Amino acid sequence: MKIDKAVKRETAYIAVLVVLLSIIMELVFFFIGKWNFSVLWGNMLGGGVAVLNFFLMALTVQKNLGKESGRVKSSVTLSMLGRYAMMVVAAVLGGIFACFSIYAVVIPFVFPRIGIALRPVIAKLGIMEM
Q1: Which residues contact 15 (CB under 8 A, 6 or more apart)?
Q2: How many helices (H) and strands (E) does the chain have?
Q3: Mean pLDDT computed over 111-126
Q4: Residue 67 in domain
Q5: Is the pTM value of this prediction over 0.85?
Q6: Does some domain include residue 130?
């Protein structure tokens, strides 16, 4: 399947926002005296999963455009369950292995939502035009 330009553009936007918010999160951990490499590794895991989750969601939307509603619902539900399972696995890995900070794994999961909420403001200001 060919990936639509809009999917690539929006995923790139989310990836940039996740990186920027991740830098802010790293700085917060540093300034409160809680930074160590587990924060960096956890952030990389959580941020990567967050961007991948958004990309897979966008692919699901692209794939289901123009399909009948009955088939769309089952496809979207299956995609959502798989993506949530991926996030749960990442969170469990973050909790089990000491090389990851569980907080740094889970916090980036909300970064794409923040990016989506900021999208109209960023577009209006002309920042990060993609």
Answers
A1: 51
A2: 5, 0
A3: 92
A4: yes
A5: yes
A6: no
